[in-house]
């Protein structure tokens, strides 16, 4: 049974995605004032009645991550205080996800703290895509739906599927993701073996698996500075690959990422719109963006109507 009227609210991090979701659902965005005061404090004011409604707040916590996270928390608090029946945070890209454990003495577990922020702010449920670590779902004491973009990306690569295609994990940590993707496409699997010669210098040494004369697709959950990804492309060509492409769900693209991708051997980099591209990234002819609006719209509809979300994983 539906939880009141379905309404969509968005912050400033990814309004284009929110509008695309509304197009799929046949609804319009809630009117809201989202901006800043002269001293830099964030101003939030929802411009319509939400009492008893089922609200979905679309906001990626991408760059500037701290601003977008605070904006999301304030929107959640405003909706809670306005007596919304249920508030679902739709966070396509969950910032701080890579800080999911203590990697040094006296270091925080930032992903857990973000989970606490969102929960205290008034979120009743989280909808996200391709968490960096699936275990982050356990940081919440409320329902979490972690969707996967793999079916959308696999649909794009289906024309290349077959024995001539090889899916490559750029490191050992992504093997499970790459194996599942390769199985979808009927492709072979390879792994890049990385050896760290010095701190902050990850060097790809050799390839585990047969990539000779194959179209290799390097798969990761995100592209940040693109160092590991581009290094993987070079090593694959050195090992006989005929062509290299890259794909990742989240185009973080920080620091020198765009320059590295432009100068990389990749013929194409396929990503999604969980994070909007900046003007520099839009000008990169190699980047192809796939929309996850339809996937999120289906999930939102199923959550609203109390239907199964798990059907979207099959």
From TrEMBL:
<dbReference type="GO" id="GO:0004749">
    <property type="term" value="F:ribose phosphate diphosphokinase activity"/>
</dbReference>
<dbReference type="GO" id="GO:0009156">
    <property type="term" value="P:ribonucleoside monophosphate biosynthetic process"/>
</dbReference>
<keyword id="KW-0418">Kinase</keyword>
<feature type="binding site">
    <location>
        <position position="196"/>
    </location>
    <ligand>
        <name>D-ribose 5-phosphate</name>
    </ligand>
</feature>
<dbReference type="InterPro" id="IPR029057">
    <property type="entry name" value="PRTase-like"/>
</dbReference>
<dbReference type="GO" id="GO:0005737">
    <property type="term" value="C:cytoplasm"/>
</dbReference>
<keyword id="KW-0067">ATP-binding</keyword>
<dbReference type="GO" id="GO:0002189">
    <property type="term" value="C:ribose phosphate diphosphokinase complex"/>
</dbReference>
<feature type="binding site">
    <location>
        <position position="132"/>
    </location>
    <ligand>
        <name>Mg(2+)</name>
    </ligand>
</feature>
<dbReference type="InterPro" id="IPR037515">
    <property type="entry name" value="Rib-P_diPkinase_bac"/>
</dbReference>
<protein>
    <recommendedName>
        <fullName>Ribose-phosphate pyrophosphokinase</fullName>
        <ecNumber>2.7.6.1</ecNumber>
    </recommendedName>
</protein>
<feature type="binding site">
    <location>
        <begin position="224"/>
        <end position="228"/>
    </location>
    <ligand>
        <name>D-ribose 5-phosphate</name>
    </ligand>
</feature>
<keyword id="KW-0479">Metal-binding</keyword>
<dbReference type="GO" id="GO:0006164">
    <property type="term" value="P:purine nucleotide biosynthetic process"/>
</dbReference>
<feature type="binding site">
    <location>
        <begin position="98"/>
        <end position="99"/>
    </location>
    <ligand>
        <name>ATP</name>
    </ligand>
</feature>
<dbReference type="Pfam" id="PF14572">
    <property type="entry name" value="Pribosyl_synth"/>
</dbReference>
<dbReference type="GO" id="GO:0000287">
    <property type="term" value="F:magnesium ion binding"/>
</dbReference>
<feature type="binding site">
    <location>
        <position position="171"/>
    </location>
    <ligand>
        <name>Mg(2+)</name>
    </ligand>
</feature>
<dbReference type="InterPro" id="IPR005946">
    <property type="entry name" value="Rib-P_diPkinase"/>
</dbReference>
<feature type="binding site">
    <location>
        <position position="220"/>
    </location>
    <ligand>
        <name>D-ribose 5-phosphate</name>
    </ligand>
</feature>
<comment type="pathway">
    <text>Metabolic intermediate biosynthesis; 5-phospho-alpha-D-ribose 1-diphosphate biosynthesis; 5-phospho-alpha-D-ribose 1-diphosphate from D-ribose 5-phosphate (route I): step 1/1.</text>
</comment>
<comment type="subunit">
    <text>Homohexamer.</text>
</comment>
<comment type="similarity">
    <text>Belongs to the ribose-phosphate pyrophosphokinase family. Class I subfamily.</text>
</comment>
<keyword id="KW-0808">Transferase</keyword>
<dbReference type="InterPro" id="IPR000836">
    <property type="entry name" value="PRTase_dom"/>
</dbReference>
<dbReference type="GO" id="GO:0016301">
    <property type="term" value="F:kinase activity"/>
</dbReference>
<dbReference type="GO" id="GO:0006015">
    <property type="term" value="P:5-phosphoribose 1-diphosphate biosynthetic process"/>
</dbReference>
<dbReference type="GO" id="GO:0005524">
    <property type="term" value="F:ATP binding"/>
</dbReference>
<feature type="domain" description="Ribose-phosphate pyrophosphokinase N-terminal">
    <location>
        <begin position="6"/>
        <end position="122"/>
    </location>
</feature>
<feature type="binding site">
    <location>
        <begin position="39"/>
        <end position="41"/>
    </location>
    <ligand>
        <name>ATP</name>
    </ligand>
</feature>
<keyword id="KW-0547">Nucleotide-binding</keyword>
<dbReference type="InterPro" id="IPR029099">
    <property type="entry name" value="Pribosyltran_N"/>
</dbReference>
<keyword id="KW-0460">Magnesium</keyword>
<dbReference type="Pfam" id="PF13793">
    <property type="entry name" value="Pribosyltran_N"/>
</dbReference>
<dbReference type="InterPro" id="IPR000842">
    <property type="entry name" value="PRib_PP_synth_CS"/>
</dbReference>
<keyword id="KW-0963">Cytoplasm</keyword>
<comment type="function">
    <text>Involved in the biosynthesis of the central metabolite phospho-alpha-D-ribosyl-1-pyrophosphate (PRPP) via the transfer of pyrophosphoryl group from ATP to 1-hydroxyl of ribose-5-phosphate (Rib-5-P).</text>
</comment>
<feature type="active site">
    <location>
        <position position="194"/>
    </location>
</feature>
<keyword id="KW-0545">Nucleotide biosynthesis</keyword>
